[in-house]
Amino acid sequence: MDSLGGTPYYILEFGDELVYFSPYTVSLFLLALVFTLFAVIAKPERQVDIAFGGDAYYAKETSLQELKFRRFMAIACGFASMGAMVTGDVFNFTLFISLVGICNVGIVAAVKNRHVQNAAYQYGIVALAATVPLFGAAATIAATTGTLSMVELWSNATPAVPPVVKALLVLGVMGEGMAPFYAAKAEMFRAPGAPYVIMCSLSSLLIFLRVIEVVLVI
């Protein structure tokens, strides 16, 4: 079985569900793993504000409890991203994408900043709405082909997936943080604490790169 990302190195099956490792998925998986390790071991930044028109500046203090929560959510986002990179099941793929959206909100939800929390709320609404086309696409694939396994869909032994279903899948991924819905997420980057905030952008990029492979081969 050849996928768009190359011949899989290994396919691990759990009944109807499976995980597969190909050159493409392994590279994305390792990228997510590296940034997750950064979130584990890195010390967060101390954000500095500079007064406009003067030399005054001050460093924002972040409580230890807030940092622990945001570190946990960044790690959870990394694990969800890694799962989305190697899963070979369409339903699990959409589930991991939804978890990435939830974790992105969680990374900045603890920040005591009105603008950041307002942006997180708006992004949360968009991410919540994006689950409708995501899971709708997975349900339609199961109904029309009788399977959610990407291996079965790639084998051409099942009925063709309707193009509208692929469009719904891409739309759902876009709603989880890609353009044009990325605008609802932009204000969240006023939150202090890299590398945690960076995980929001990286996770969105990774799932977009993975969905390209999925929609081109199913």
Tell me what you see in this structure.
The protein is mostly helical. It has one domain. 63% of the residues lie in helices and 7% in strands. The protein has eight helices and four strands, in the order ββαββααααααα. It has helices at residues 23-41, 64-86, 90-109, 114-145, 150-154, 163-175, 183-186, 196-217, and strands spanning 10-14, 17-21, 48-50, 57-59. Strands 1-2 form a two-stranded antiparallel sheet. It has a two-stranded antiparallel sheet with strand order 3-4. Helix 1 runs antiparallel to helix 8 (196-217), helix 2 (64-86) packs antiparallel against helix 3 (90-109) and helix 4 runs antiparallel to helix 6. The longest helix has 32 residues, at 114-145. 38% of the residues are buried. The mean pLDDT is 80.
Q: How does the helix and strand content classify structurally?
A: mainly alpha
Mean pLDDT: 80
Spatial shape: elongated
Strand content: 5-15%
Largest sheet descriptor: 2 strands, antiparallel
Helix segment count?
8
Number of strands: 4
The radius of gyration over CA amounts to 19 Å
Order of strands, widest sheet: 1-2
Domains, number = 1
Element-level helix/strand string: EEHEEHHHHHHH
User: Oligomeric status of the shown chains?
Assistant: single chain
Helix content: 55-70%
Spans of 5+ residues with little confidence (pLDDT < 50)? none
